[in-house]
Write a structure and sequence with these properties.
Layout lengths: L5 H32 L19 H26 L2 H19 L6 H20 L8 H20 L7 H26 L3
Helix pairs in contact: 1-2, 1-6, 2-3, 3-4, 4-5, 4-6, 5-6
Amino acid sequence: MTPTSPSMQYQNRKVAGFLLFIAGVAGVLGIIIAEALHPLYNTRQNYISDLGVGPSAIVFNTSMVLLGLSIIGSSYFIQKAFNIKLATVLLAVTGIGAVGVGIFTEDAGFLHVIFSLITFLFAGITAILSYKLVKPPLSYLSIAFGGVTLLSLVLFGTENYLNLGKGGMERMIAYPALLWATGFGGHLIGSSD
């Protein structure tokens, strides 16, 4: 196997970053737009996945599939750029989970729950492990965003919503992971080393 040249590693980082940035933006904007399209939606009382059915379904489900496909694509270029199989696999599994969320809406029951759990769990772990790929302060922020995602997932799973409601606590799982993807993606796009 021929080693990747520095210029190819540089290009692979750029493409990986672009795809991660798109994933983060697709997730955040998909949720916000879907919330605006759903007339009875309440961010405190409704699950994020409630946006996947009803008047907001096409926007939300499309954004989840786009998010997932972008993450899967990014994982390929992360592997080419950094050759870190664990990070690549975790990131790819996160993307597969997100695609599953968009395809198997909450009407799918247990299948939807499994894909949601996969997405949230592996996104948090991946964010934490990405600290190895960046320097401070982004390495610290990656750990913090991943940690908040995982802690919030535990709180959500045990129904400790900290007065945020189930919808608010679920956003404390999703948004830090999406912000990490956007920030980490932006870093990869702008990196010159």
